[in-house]
């Protein structure tokens, strides 16, 4: 074993508490510099060896035996315990029939051991043993999981605990949270892609018209559908159970009154966030993603998928106190019981009020009228590298992003409270944001009376080269140009009608009906998570948000470097379950290239209704919050719906690293990228075929079918589809021998997947009496078809087609109108322009089980009928 030390000048070490180097047991060198307080270079030389054996197993958590994957016979996989400074040597033997992998989530290690198969680590073949050998250069709570297909959902996840050299003073317990489904995860993804409502029904998350009417929320329901958005939801998948350390309820009895325990909480779920609560009082967050933070006391904390938090709780009296993790959609929970004796359960969280979430979203969208749900703007800024010292500030980027979404912050200065904690009127020149605020009417502004004491906002007097002189929509007549700098791209300074604007006061207050707050001191990462609802239910409680995370030590990046700014729009189509970044799924996208030696900023814009816990392999990044130089370091950040979140990191590595949403089904549906280091990136791809295979997960095809066997005929619908293509076969027949069959090959053409085009053929058969012979026969005709489909407000699919004889036909169809939780209605109308003939149908169905419903239909051609529909 060879040791190599990599020393930076002493000055650098003094300037930042950063670290300098590492080597592996095998002599690899790497130069992380962003883990304050952790001794990356000081090695003990102790080699800690683990042998992990992965095998097929059967589990039974809920009464139904379910195939799963065990590691050393266990789910979760065993805890890998180290002390900072050790060297890890982990042997993984594959006793399953397919390939497996393990990724060491949150560990800083040489690229080749990162464990993403086909990208940087070999596949572990059946019967083979693989060894990962790397130095342990950090401490904290981490985890490991498979990075192959759906193996993580099937049980391949486990904790990694690295003790600091000094140890920790309290008792401790690992709590790995996970979600369990009795279904094969392939089937889970197929179900959500084909968009049945079954999981929503099981999770009591259906928002029906009946329910909306009964609760006075009809307007919200219509608003949502008018905007072509599916019902509000928090999660995608129905889970049969949630587990703590592989159990529905785990326990730690040996804790007595007054004793404190550190819970190392790991969200090892495939696609669940959890609300954490402790029955015995406040929880103290002491570490996030393995990095120490200034302790913060909270009553509730939402832990996103793939995050870890160390949480200290103290037993108030002798007794059994519940530490509870409730799934983010709040229909089930798992627990760890601490202590022994009288039972003290944590309070059950109220059911999600989905209409309240709809309202929150409506308010937000009213504030950002230019935002298009699910889609990046047409002019996504190209990644840009700014020379040293010339990059815009993060505040500028945030503000600019809000402007781009059309946020109008018309300020009513008569009401302006000039003690706005986020605004600064400093007179010190600073290359940041200039004088004005959007929507500011300077004619009303009396600068003489202003209290220039607004921390956070920069009113500098130094012109800055990066922004344009003119503001579109600015009413220059009202402005005193002598007093200002004019550079705010995209800002709207015109006076906007009352009601559409958010005043500056509101920016840092909570003045919206939903309790939604805005501004830099508003809670971060909580939009549409249920935060505001829970806050309203218990106003005195402290609910965790990212602005409470303060790194114990400064994390500011070195400034003597170029800065690369990369804008990433998280988008997709909820109905088709396609997830994208900058309008492209992984399979269609280039790598995001960065260069060693620069600082990299990712600016996330979440244009979807869902949270996306974004995880970057091999690096820690600063999550830019309101803690300034002490912004926390994380490896996973939950980007909440419609929020703009900025992360930044020093590009210190080489080769290729995976970067993706850690909701497994989002990742598998396209929300991922490869981050490549310029110069060393392609070297890793030994085989182009492997590489293509790696990036092809989101191109996989799924099947779906439905057959309605009714009294007046049989309807059948088959489709084979992937992210942008669909091959379908539809048929209907009555019991007199009349039939219609239609085959189509279709492709979606726009990023939001509202528009598609197809070609196909139709075969019609009609039973007719032959006039001469008097015999019954079938007359068939075959038509070639071409058409386009467009998704209209109120979730109506329009379909305009022409056949080879020039016959033009328009069809409008709305399926699955939720009348109640399980009762649906549908309507279809078709008009043939040549024959001037209309056809229509009304249907209704009641969803009895996952795969079947009772159906009634009236069709203008087929008449009235009823029966059963099988849904696959
Ligand atoms: Cu996601």
Automatic annotation (TrEMBL):
Pfam families: Cu-oxidase, Cu-oxidase_2, Cu-oxidase_3. The keyword Oxidoreductase applies. It comes from the Bacteria. The keyword Ribosomal protein does not apply. CDD domains: CuRO_2_CopA (cd13874), CuRO_3_CopA (cd13896). Coiled coil: none annotated. Keywords: Copper, Metal-binding, Oxidoreductase, Signal. This is FtsP/CotA-like multicopper oxidase with cupredoxin domain. It comes from Neolewinella aquimaris.
